Amino acid sequence: MREFAAMIIAWQKLHGRHDLPWQHTRDAYHIWLSEIMLQQTQVTTVIPYYRRFLERFPNLAALARAPLDRVLELWSGLGYYSRARNLHRTAQTLIAEHAGHFPRDVDAVQALPGIGRSTAAAICVFTHGSCHAILDGNVKRLFARCFGIAGYPGDAKVQAQLWRQAQLALPRQEVEAYTQGLMDLGATVCTRGKPRCAACPLNRRCIAYKSGRIAELPAARPRKTRPQRRTQMLVLVHSGQVLLEKRVASGIWGGLWSLPEIEADGNIRALCAQRYGAEVSGHEPLPTIAHGFTHFKLDIEPHKVMVTHVIPRAAAPGVVWLSLEEALGAAIPAPVRRILAAL
Ligand code: ADE
Fold first, then answer.
1. CATH number of 228-341
2. Of 33, 286, 310, 326, which has the fewest beta carbons less than 10 angstroms from its beta carbon?
C-alpha cells in the first residue's frame, strides 16, 4: 500500500494541478469555502465563484456579518443552495461561540453543518497537513477501479469497503500531495467516460484495467427513474420591470428569489390580480426549460405576462419589482436566470 501512495505523490508532483486558487494557502476559511464549493461542482465552474466570494467576504467575520441574501446572490447559479446557507450559519456560530476560530480537530470539523467525513478530512489535510482519508465521488471511482471493488459506491457496504481501502492507502508523509494527487488523478485521468489509462501511473496495478473492466467499475447507480414534474412560471413585465417573489426558507431554492408559480390549469389573469394587484393585457408561452434535481426532473413552462397597471397597495411581503439587470444580479436559481436572460 505504501507503494500506491508513493506513486500518487510522485505523479502529483509532475502532472498534478499546482495553481488552483485555493492551493498555496493554509487559511482554513479559504480552504473550507473551496471544499464546500467543490462538493458536487467542477473546478472550472467553481473558480470564478470562489474568487468573487472572497472578494466580497474576505474573512469569516465579513461572511458572518453579511445578510443571507448577499451570500445567496454570490451563490446564484452554483446550485445546492443549502451549502450557502450552512456556510453562512457556520460562520455566525464560529464568530459567536468559537472566537472566530475554525476547529482543528477533524471530528469537530465534521460536526459543522454541511461537512461530511470526506470534506472534513480534506479541510484538515490542506489546513494543517494532518493525516485523514478522503473519499469523494472521483476518488471512489479511482479506488473501485484500482482495487477492483464491485457494487454501487452509494451502497453502504460498498462504501464501507471503499473507506477501509482509503484508510489503508494513506501515507505517513506528504499527505497534502497525496490527497491532491487523488483528486487530480480522479478528475483528469481516471475520469468516468474515456479514462486516459495509458497515462495513469497506476495502470500496471489497476485491477479494472488489467481485467478489462474499466467500463464496468464502479457499478452504476441502480436504475431508478427520477419522477418528472412540471410547473408554470410567470414573468410579469411592467414598465421594463419584472416581478420576483422570495421563496420560503424550506424546500427547493429556499430563500432564493424566483418567479411566481401557478398550477398547470390555473387562471393567470385571476392569480395576477389577486396576488399581485396586477392588471394583465395578455400573456404568451415562452420555451420550456428542463431542469434536473437529484431526486426529480422538472419541466418549467414560463409565460410572459404583459401587465398594464399595478394597483398601488401595501407591497405584498416578499415581492419586488426589479429591472431585468437588477433581477439578474439577485439570488435566483439557474433556470430562472435562463428564462430572464432570454427575454
Ligand atoms: N475537489 C474537491 N476538493 C478539491 C480540491 N481541493 N482541489 C481540486 N478538486 C477538488
1. 3.90.79.10
2. 326
According to CATH, the topology of domain 2-216 is: Endonuclease III; domain 1 (1.10.340)
Distance 96 CA to ligand 1 centre (A): 29
| pLDDT for residue 151 | 95
Domain ranges within the chain, ordered by starting residue: 2-216, 228-341
**If we measure between CA atoms, which residue out of 81, 18, 29 comes closest to residue 54?**
29
Q: How many CB atoms lie within 10 A of CB 190?
A: 28
- Determine if ligand 1 sits within 6 Å of the CB of residue 122: yes
Is there a common fold for 2-216 and 228-341? no
Give yes or no for a contact between 321 and 242, defined as CB atoms under 8 angstroms apart.
yes
Neighbours of 196 (CB within 10 A): 12
- How many angstroms separate the CA atoms of 281 and 305, rounded? 8
**Is the Cβ atom of 36 under 6 angstroms away from ligand 1?**
no
**pLDDT at residue 153 greater than cutoff 90:** yes
Tell me: the pLDDT tens digits for 53-69? Answer: 999 999 999 999 999 99
- CA of 136 from ligand 1 middle (Å) equals 9
pTM of the model: 0.85
Structural element, H or E, at residue 208: helix 207-210
Residue 149 has pLDDT above 60, yes or no: yes
